[in-house]
Sequence to fold (112 residues):
Amino acid sequence: QMLAEVERLRRERDEDKHKFDHELRQADAAKKEVEEVQRGLEGKVATLVEADAKKDRDNFERTNAYKAQILSLKSQIQELTTTIHKLEGSVTENYNFKVLSEQNDMLRDEVE
Fold:
């Protein structure tokens, strides 16, 4: 019965590892996607700032519209950065869980 329990725990560990690996791949893909979006948004921000600098008084309303878009894009960048930090925290938490699980398995093996 103890062997069955050990086997069950190993299966759980393997499932946790698979889940961790899957979440890690998802986090990496999300981070890359966020970085690509961030680069695109930063490019758009730079373009808008450059266009804004060229506007004169006759285009006051148009300039204000660009500024609103810039603020919106900066807000999106901040939200994406926050998402990256949350994903990194989740990956770290899952990794720590995996390490504890492996240590637990090693202790069980030593007890046997």
In short: The helical segments are 2-54, 60-111. The first helix runs from residue 2 to 54. The chain has a mean pLDDT of 85. The CA atoms of residues 100 and 106 lie 10 Å apart.
